[in-house]
Amino acid sequence: MAQGHNALIIEEDRLIIQIDLRSSKIQLDSILKIAGIREANTDNIIKGDFGFFKNEGWVFEAKQDNIVKFNRPLIVLSNNSQRTPYLVTTQIPDINGKSKKSPLVNYGINKFAKITVYELASGLTRFILPGYERSKRVFLSGNFNNWSTLKGLMKKADGGWLLDVKLEAGACEYKFITDGRWTTDPDNLIQTNDGAGNVNSVYYKYNYTFKLSGYSLAHKITVAGEFNNWNTDELSLGKKDNIWQLQMYLSEGKHLYCFMVDDQRITDPLNPHKENNIGGNLSSVLNIGEMVTFKLDGYSSAKNVTISGNFNNWDENTLQMQRVANRWILPETFPAGNYSYRFIVDGISMVDPQNPFTLFEKGEFKSFLALKPTHYFILKGFSSAKKVTIHGSFNNWEPHGYTMARKGDDWIIGFNLKPGKYLYKFIVDDRWILDPGNKFWEQNEFNTGNSVLWIE
């Protein structure tokens, strides 16, 4: 990683960036990119202005002639780490041998002996493996690259190896492969059982920060909610810039929570959304995910309109829609996924008349909604068809299938599908057909074939 006197060095408890002020702008840009510092102005560096280093967590160490050094500690200094458990047990089944799903967890906080995985200003996540200087090749493998043994080649630096990757918010399972040998991250204290007797390291990419202003005399502030079973002694906030705060990962969906200030329960003063939890305690409400606004036009004489679906266990009473002019409205936030629902108008259940997508389930038709679809099925060339449905392994070949919507001359429907293999066919006006736009198919027991879709 050295270029002239420019170098990024991995030591036991810190990273060191060494810069030669006589370097060209191209050389400076190169070492700053390697160090993960994107916002730096090379002209300011040459002039001796190093303020941006402090903004990104680097500490001035020394300057000798034209050589300047900064270090970034890898030791965890805060007490805001998740106390227990450090071993997360989850079942992560293989999907047709292609990949493994991320563990479905409600929340997560990282705990490292040394901070060897962290976020860069670029939005990428940096993984560092100190040592292993005699290794010829080191790979980073995890659920983010389908546990590939060919991708994720790490770059060798003075004192270790590093690699920057793009991650989605959530739990990232990973291991290092050093000269063909798999190993967990020695500095990561959170591990998970992969369901096959192996242990992987887990890193949580955060997506939310709890903040509480004031309370300067408080000794301890924690946050608790449905996500951690209202454990008021687990998630401690730390004080930064006179604001109590805690970064963490929270799963998509609706979360009720509160703060505990020296054992006194309070709601979030900056969050106007509140409701009682199961125990009857007033709690703040946080919604993470996709906002959906359900709308039902007309029914101006109705007294009570609700919505029920697989997102609330088909409870017909809790999700009350509000009347606005000549329309009933309800905004809700859900995680990515596939949903079915019906409206309840004064006790009478009905599908959404404005939603063309339906499915047949438990003896009745229901409206269908896909949030953050990972694949769209598009059927071209049947513009004169009256009805098109899709059937497959994703709904156990249910005879009614999913009703597709006409868009121009095409028929379309989207699904949020997990990685894996799927078989499917269309029914066009009562006639089964393969997908003419998909060249991949395999024979079935009826010798009529099924189209094949792989989701990576």
Automatic annotation (TrEMBL):
Residues 135-202, 218-289, 301-373, 384-450 form the AMP-activated protein kinase glycogen-binding domain. One of its GO terms (molecular function) is kinase activity. CDD domains: E_set_AMPKbeta_like_N. Pfam families: AMPK1_CBM. Keywords: Kinase, Transferase. InterPro entries: AMPK1_CBM, CRP1_MDG1_kinase, Ig-like_fold, Ig_E-set. SUPFAM superfamilies: E set domains (SSF81296). Belongs to the 5'-AMP-activated protein kinase beta subunit family. This is AMP-activated protein kinase-like protein. The lineage of its organism: Bacteria, Pseudomonadati, Bacteroidota, Sphingobacteriia, Sphingobacteriales.
